[in-house]
Amino acid sequence: MIALVDYGGNVGSVRKAIEYLGAAADVIRVQAADAAARLRRAEKIILPGQGHFGVMAHALAESGLKADLSDQLAAGTPFFGICLGLQVLYEGSDEAPGVAGLGLLRGPVKRLQPVPAPQRVWGPASGTKVPHVGWSQLEIRKPASRLLRGIPDGSFFYYCHSYYGPVTAETCAITEYGSPFAAAVERGHVWAVQFHPEKSGQAGLQVLMNFLNL
Amino acid sequence: MLAKRIIPCLDCRDGRVVKGVRFVELRDAGDPGELAEAYNREGADELVMLDISASREGRATLLDTVQRVARRLFIPLTVGGGLRTIDDAERLLGVGADKVAVNTAAVEKPELVRELAARFGSQAVVVAIDARRASPLEAPNWNLGSFESTPPLPSSRGRAEGVTAKVKQPSWEVVTYGGTRRTGLDAVDWARRVESLGAGEILLTSMDADGTQQGFDCELTRAVSTAVRIPVIASGGAGTPEHFAQVFLEGAADAALAASVFHFDQYSIRRLKEFLRRRGISVRL
User: Are B253 and A16 an interchain contact pair (Cβ–Cβ within 8 Å)?
Assistant: First the structure.
């Protein structure tokens, strides 16, 4: 069983994708009384997320699930974070100053900076707008990453975010949007992506499948 | 760089996909679930579903249709048509839509755009604008002063000014209820307004071009796209791959939407994208 941690965001589309790939998902609301027990039983854990860093970090902390999650990560249960689920692995975020993340990756999550289009010959896309919404290319830094098996360098993935994780030693792929940011990270049994694999067509399903097959 | 998006549109009526020329003369184009899956496979970047059911019964089938489409779709899905309230939006998002599109309801109650954005985030809110080119005779009743106006001043530069003053600025009026009702709103002004209210994206349909397959209205698309900082999806008039290249290069569109050319197998999305890439346009292949 794959635990799908629901902190109040919409996990429906991730669940749909996992089930489409033939796996069973246990959607665990963070407030659920038996959340910790179900998390401990999970083979693998997925933390999808869209929304506010502070809201997610608080929801995890207040429910007590943050400690359980950290325990599971320390115990080696494979973990996959999506979007905000990647950002929460960092120490903190400029989106919610003073609120601690899980602290597995160094540095604060930062806000994307819009780059104005100098001349709008090519339309708005010649600059970069915030939020970053749409299809951007992956630049693979660690081709050996098991999460990215079968994903050609330069593949497009679907993004929707205003904040980004800085590139660290754990970054296995980056995307350029104004500046380079961590698109996929890997540290031991912990993986995470900034893009939405559940909305990225065939390439996205491949990444999810890679995680399910680990 | 962000890829330019190609978006097939499913106009749905009573649970079936239909497509009309200038919003009338509907032809049946197939089962929404099957079409959606085929487009997903072919490399569509997103999918838009617009409900054009005339009856209450027809509209009631929409949620079921959306759910059926969303189940096997792994790209973003936008749903619109007849959406009037926050509750309508919540139901659509609940059955698998990623974004909702509002049109007539936004014109009648602009605050709805703000409320939708506050509740679901701007990324989930698309404002659909149907625009019709105003004829030069009836054009200048909004935006006083920005159209052909005063005669040239008798100065040393009078001659040059006289030339520019004769050039008529084109303008477009927002229409609602599937193009049957005029609003008196200028399309560019309305686009700026909905951006400030929190719209995440604009789906811009030229009512003059829609269904004709004679090409997008690039002038309209460019006017709106350069007036706002949110993405603009151009719609209406796609007939050939060249039309798509034009609307990206000349129209400054971020995405292009089409229905008939894809439903009736005139050419595949993959072939279209290969063509666009050869023209130097960034697309996801």
Answer: no
**Is A123–B248 a contact, with Cβ atoms under 8 angstroms apart?**
yes
What CATH class is the domain A2-213?
Answer: alpha beta
Predicted ipTM > 0.90: no
**pLDDT tens by residue, A123-180:** 444 567 788 989 999 999 999 999 999 999 999 999 999 899 999 999 999 999 988 9
Catalytic residue numbers of A read 83, 196, 198
Residue B180 lies in a domain: yes
Do A147 and B15 form a contact (C-beta atoms < 8 A)? Answer: no
Which residues from A are below 8 Å from B191, CB to CB? none
Whether residue B147 is contained in a domain is answered as: no
Query: Count of CB contacts below 8 A, A vs B?
Result: 90
B97 by DSSP, 3-state: which? coil
CB A88 within 8 A of CB A56: yes
Residue B102: CATH number of its domain = 3.20.20.70
Whether B130 is a known active-site residue: answer: yes
- Does some domain include residue B104? yes
Structural domain range at position B225: 5-134+170-278
Cβ partners under 8 Å of residue B276, min gap 6: B4, B6, B241, B244, B245, B248, B283
Q: What one-character DSSP code corresponds to residue B166?
A: H
Using a CB-CB cut-off of 8 Å, the residues of chain B touching A134 are 2-3, 5, 231, 254
Chain B residue nearest residue A198, CA to CA: B74
